[in-house]
Amino acid sequence: MNEKRGHWYLLTGLVIGAAIGVLIAITLVPVRYTDTAPYYLDTRDKDVYRGLIARAYLVEADNNRAKARLELLGDVNAEDALVEQAQQLIAAGENETESRALALLAAAIQQNTVQITPLPKVITNPTAEPAVIEPTATSEAVTPTNALSTSAALITVTPRPTNTPLPTQGAPYELVEQEELCNPTLAGGLIQVFVFNRADKPVPGVRIEVSVAGGGVESFYTGLYPEISAGYADYAMAEGMTYNLRVGDGGQLVQNLSVPVCDADGGKQYPGSIKLTFKKPD
User: Fold this and answer.
1) What is the largest CA-CA distance in the chain?
2) Are residues 189 and 104 in the same domain?
3) Three-state secondary structure string covering 152-197
4) Helix axes 96-110, 43-60, angle to 10 degrees
5) 118: three-class secondary structure by DSSP
6) 85 in a domain, yes or no?
7) Of 57, 92, 120, which residue sits at a domain end?
């Protein structure tokens, strides 16, 4: 007698088999990626990779090579990713060198004409022959003292490199305009800094120092807000505080900056901002 059966048992078997296969793949023999492309890295590892690219850019100053490396990450907008990562480091007060490198690289992507002064490289000599102590026929006992002096005579000590300065900014910047900004629709209490070169082009990656009376210095850099200007940076002031500001190494010191008080309709007051424009002297 022929018994007619449906095909549901086949579908059930396929589902159970697929579920068992997925369970084995996840728990017993999970996939391990080796030598894969940077595109497949998770978000945290992409940040590490992006930071390494930026640090290498400080030394190589090669725009095209840095861009080619960033393309391997597959970011939708590499410039925005660099700026966001730099802002996160600054907000956390971590790794000032890397945050500046990220900002400089973001500016170089936005404007291919941006060029930085590369950091000097520390060159080692891997071909140097190791010192060999030849045995001698002597009856002199080797004590810790003369053993130390013998080793010191045979070993060449390479001096440690000193702290390497960041890319140079050249001649100091001078303040060419200072203006109080009163606009109730905008956030107040900011020091807005715009930095230009001799050709009136915005300059990214310029270090700005803000200090207060009695000590305390903070640094920030231009280039983190390319949507405003590659040469723009800002600092949030606290009401009742007085600040001094300097742009670049050895630049002009601007003193006694504080939150301006602006008058609104109805006799109300609100905090304004200060706009400072700096330029390289001709």
Assistant:
1) 107
2) no
3) HHHCCCCCCCCCCCCCCCCCCCEEEEEEEECCCCCCCCEEEEEEEC
4) 80
5) coil
6) yes
7) 120
Task: Give the DSSP H/E element, type plus range, for residue 147.
Answer: helix 144-154
205 and 274 assigned to the same domain: yes
Residues 6+ apart with CB under 8 A from 228: none
Q: Are residues 14 and 114 in the same domain?
A: yes
Cβ atoms of 28 and 51 closer than 8 Å: no
pTM above 0.70, yes or no: no
- Residue 96: give the domain boundaries: 10-120
Tokens found for residue 223: 């280039």
How far, in Å, CA of 272 to CA of 203, rounded?
25
Find which of 13-17, 33-37, 112-116, 127-131 is predicted with most confidence, using mean pLDDT: 13-17
Q: Is 149 part of a structural domain of the chain?
A: no
133 located within any domain: no
The count of structural domains within the chain is 2
Residues 93, 178 within the same domain? no
268 belongs to a structural domain: yes
Identify whether residues 18 and 115 lie together within a single domain. Answer: yes
Angle between helices 78-92 and 63-71 (to 10 degrees): 90
Is residue 250 within 8 Å of residue 172, measured between CB atoms? yes
Residue 249 sits in a domain whose CATH number is: 2.60.40.10
- Per-chain mean pLDDT for the chain: 75
Contact indicator for 33, 42 with CB cutoff of 8 Å: no
Give per-residue pLDDT as tens, 166-194: 444 456 889 999 999 998 888 888 999 99
pLDDT tens for 103-158 read 888 887 777 666 676 765 544 454 544 444 344 333 344 333 333 333 333 333 33
Q: What angle do CA 211, 247, 102 make, to 5 degrees?
A: 100
